[in-house]
Amino acid sequence: MPERQVSLSDSAAKRIASLISQEGDASLMLRLSVSGGGCSGFQYGFSFDNSVQADDHLFERDGVKVVIDDTSLDLLSGAEIDFVEDLVGASFQVRNPNAKSSCGCGSSFSIG
Question: Which CATH number applies to 7-110: 3.40.50.9100, 3.40.50.2020, 2.60.300.12, 3.40.50.10490?
Fold first, then answer.
């Protein structure tokens, strides 16, 4: 079975580092999760965490750490987390090759 990976774009790593700096706690990591819900069946969750659980996987870029639980990683394998700024605003986006469709808001997806 190929190794499951999630990557961070340069802009996402910089933005996460900036947010962690604002929080004032260098031990923080970005926790990315997938849960049921949203308009397409699954939704992404972003939060800061400073602990790693037994079923978590840790990914790192430029000193920024992302932690993802094993179940979420099944749905995120091969995905890239990006931070995009445009005329509409700024947001994190998940480019997920496992998503068959996603809603217009970009925060939920389906795999069916």
Answer: 2.60.300.12
